[in-house]
Each structure stands twice: as C-alpha cells, then as structure tokens.
C-alpha cells in the first residue's frame, strides 16, 4: 500500500503508470472492439491517409487497416516483451542465486559462462540465436530472453553474495535448514525486490529488442504483425506514406517511455532508504519553520541558552515531535548532563543547536538557541559554518563513523584547523600533534600518521575529542561519547574530559543515558522524556532526592558497586511513540502514581530556579 502511494506521489511514475494501464487495457480489449480484420487485404484502398473513408489511422501498402494492425500488434509486442522479461528474470535470478550462495568453484564456473555470453554484442548474439533457431516470434522471444539472462544473473549474484554470509543465514543453517530451504526462505525474499526492480526497468528494453528483431524480419512473420514488423514494413514507404511507420513508431515510444517511467517509480518506492528519505541530500542546515516569533532577545549572560526549542520530523502524513519545548542554559566552564532513555530526544536536541538535524525530514518549528546571545536558528549558512567546529564543537558516539576512513587522523585535524584559521600546514600539523599528546595518545607524532582503522576504539575517541578541541572551542557538545567503549576505557576518557574541562575552562553539554557517568562529570543535569525536560537541577541534588517518578526509576536502574544487595528495577512499559504522544504527562502510562489529572492538559516545568520538575505530584521538592 505504501509503495503504491509513493508511486502515485511521483508524478512522472504515476503518469507512466496511467499511460501503460491505458495501453494494456486497449490491448486486452482488442478482441471485443468493433475494428476491421487486421489481416484483410484491400489493394484498391492501399496507403490511405489517416482519417479518410473511416480508416482512422489509414491503411498500409496492402490496404490493411492500420488501427486494427496497431492494436493487435501492440498486444503481441506487450505479451512477447513481458514474457521475455519473465523468462530472463526467472532463469537469470536462479543462476545468480546459485552462484552467489554456493560461491567458490560453482560461482567461478557459472560466472565465467555468463562472462562469455556478455562478451558478445547483445544484438549479434540475438541474431545468431535466431539464425540457429529460425525466424519467428517465439524464437525472437527466446533470443531476447537469453541475451538478457546475464544481466539478471550478475545483479542477483552480487546481492546474494552479500546476503550469503550474513548472520541470519548462518543462524538458519545452524537451525538445521538445508541449502534449498535457506535459498527459498531466507535468500529469495531478500533478493525479490531487486528482481522486481530489475524487471521493471528492463521490460521496456526487451520490448524494444523484440521489436528490433521483428524490424529486421526475424521476429513475427507475415501476415502476423507486431510493432517491430509494422515499422519494418512502413520503413520502405517512409517518404511516400510516412504514417505507416509513424503509427507503430509512436506506439513503441509510448510503451517504452511509460514502462521506463513506471519502472523508475517502482525502483524508488521499493528502496527502503529512498522511502525513509535517507538517500535524499540533506540541506546544509536544518530547515527552520517557526510558527511563532522566536522568544524576545534579552541580555543573555549564559554561553548557551536554549528556549522552548521544538524540532520535528515530517514523513508523509506523520509528524514525529522529537523535541517538544526544551529550555536550558550552560555558562562558561559549566557541564550540563542531558539524561534519558533511548528515543527521548537527547541527540535531536543536541543536533538542533547548530542546525545539524537532516532536512528533510527534520524541521525546527519553534524556539531559539542563543550562543553568546546570538540566535543560531536565524543565522545564515556561512555564520553557522564558522560556529560549527569553531566556538562550538561536537564529539559523537562512534568515531569510526565520523572520522574519514581514507585520510590520516593528523590530516583530518589539519583540515579542521585550516578551515577556521589561516595557518601553514606544518604549524597546523604541529598543533594537531600537540593536541593528540594532550588527549594522552602515546607516541602522538607517529599516531597522527595513522588511519582511523589502525587505532583502538578508545584511541579513536580520543582523536575525536582532540578534533573537537582544535579550534579552542568554548563549548563542546558530547553525544554519548563513551557508550561504545568498555568500562575501563570509558573511565579513562571521562577522566580526560574532566581534566580538559578544568584546564581550558570548557563548557560542556554531555548527553548520556547513564546517571553514573553524569555523577562523575556534570555540575547540573536535565532529565528528558518524550522530547521534554521532566526534571533539572544540580547533579548531586537530583541524584540524592529525585523528584520526578521517571528520574527516580532511571536512577534505580544504575548498578552500584559495593552497594550491597539491591533489587535492580527496570522501568515497565515503553516510551510513547513521538508521533502519537498522550495528553498530559507523557510518563503517566508508566507511572504508578498517575491519576486522572496527570492525563489532562499541559504540565509545566515548575520549580525554584535551581531545581525544577514537570510533575503534579513531585517527591521531596519544596515547591
Ligand atoms: N530521521 C528521523 N525520522 C523520524 N523520527 C526520527 C528521526 N530521527 C530521530 N527520530 C525520532 O526522534 C526521537 C528522538 O530521537 P533521538 O535520537 O534524539 O533520541 P535519543 O534520546 O538521543 O536516543 P539514543 O540514546 O538512542 O540516541 C525518537 O523517537 C526517534 O525515533
């Protein structure tokens, strides 16, 4: 259903689909239409122009009605082209799956045979096949199918090779399935979309090839007509009776064009990455579409002040409200922890600060983000570019994904330095090495020449931190920088961040789902749930006397070493889907204290300046 909707939304594909549907309907209805016999010759009325004496499209050189021949010829061409596509797809895909799945010698043997077939120009190969089998439409169909088998075999083999070594195939084998069962139940469903895509984009091509063989007199034989043979007959009269070749020529064009437009639409609709927008090129900054004016500019003494930030993702008719009105501020040298379960909106909040949420589908719909008093959401691209990696830098969770795999880490740091200040390459390199030393990378001058894959996970994250520091930022936003590391390395990285913060008076926004990490590093903490802050305050206070039931539950999930026997409690239920948030408190469905009032209206973040909580029944907080 979604695929059909996506095709309908693609105007060109929808146009192609409608045209093709009309042509196919016409071809199917042709036996019931009141038209002349397509093979009835009438030499007295030969080569009549269109729209004369009841012959809508005129007559050919034997006086046969061109409309009747066109409709029957279209039917024949469509059937032959589609049949050739199905035969080529079935045989080619089977060959590709067998070669890709079994690999080794089977693969080499099959693929070398396919290579030999591909070594011949396809039309010559088709001609040779028809020459051996003899002229005729069925033989032309076989020839076209055979020359297209290698195309399917190669494509499907490539996809199968990648699938054959995946964990789910190993798991199927270990569960006792034999090769045939694995191919049918594990491989085939995964290659099916590729087969459909390949078919939809090649069927037009096969209709053309069959028409080409008929045009040369090797396909349909008189008196039977397909579009190619009609074109071949008309060609001889191109000057005296151009309509005889224009009529089948236009029909071939219409069919092939509509098949190709629809095929492209099907390809796009079946590709899950295109469907989710993952392949669309995001804009350089998140789209800002504020329904209200940004909050008034007042004198701001915080380095970063976020006010009523709203960010959402618009996918088709659905709107995912990832960040639904977030306020916080960070002063110079201060570290704010943002904590919450997966999906609570921490990363989207962090990325929204400097317009890094991908648009489409992300849109900032409200609020303001002031860095040194200037709203980043109103900045132009160049101002944002100067800020990113300059005064404000980011460290992400997976340095293997953020570092470029083909450049040495030192070169990547040099590039980051020279993007922001004019410095000679050598001076920038020396600065990079000094920073690598500062983040305690042993033998930094040597490591600067390493590629990311040559470093351990902990070392790569240190490079990520050094990369963030190259331009002496005032604020670093760290999005789960230690989650991918083991606990010992995590402790080292946290100690390093703590030292760097002291030495450089760095402000930090530290995003994590781990209260243990927050307690080591952060002065203040903000707890997020379903895109909003539900509690905030000094870290020690929040940890000792959590007020919001959610904070309490989150803290109870943290293991305490030497804490004696304690039952670790998980939070029952799941966070609400952000495209369908409940009214009132979003945590109410999982909260054992929730009453009817909690499920109504908007609950504000109330407090006494330092501590604030978004709850109607907060605990232990003098409000
Ligand atoms: N491209 C997107 N399209 C639709 N929804 C999205 C997209 N990116 C994020 N979201 C939604 O936004 C919400 C917040 O996501 P976010 O990544 O900020 O969570 P998080 O708290 O950082 O989680 P994690 O700790 O797993 O990174 C989630 O519900 C997520 O499903």
Secondary structure layout plus pairing:
Blueprint: H1 2-9, H2 11-29, H3 66-102, H4 104-119, H5 122-133, H6 137-164, H7 167-174, H8 179-215, H9 227-235, H10 243-270, H11 272-276, E1 287-288, E2 304-315, E3 318-330, E4 335-339, H12 346-353, E5 362-371, E6 374-375, H13 381-387, E7 392-395, H14 399-402, H15 409-420, H16 425-438, H17 444-447, H18 457-469, E8 475-479, H19 487-504, E9 507-512, H20 515-521, E10 524-529, E11 532-538, H21 539-544, H22 549-556, E12 606-607, E13 612-613
Parallel strand pairs: 1-5, 4-9, 4-10, 7-8, 8-9
Antiparallel strand pairs: 2-3, 2-5, 5-6, 10-11, 11-13, 12-13
Helix pairs in contact: 1-10, 2-3, 2-10, 3-4, 3-6, 3-8, 4-6, 5-6, 6-8, 7-8, 8-9, 8-10, 9-10, 15-16, 16-18, 18-19
The protein binds adenosine-5'-triphosphate (ATP).
Adenosine-5'-triphosphate is lined by residues 313, 315, 320, 322, 340, 342-348, 361, 513, 578.
Domain ABC transporter: 304-555
GO molecular function, one term: ATP binding
Protein name: Dipeptide/oligopeptide/nickel ABC transporter permease/ATP-binding protein
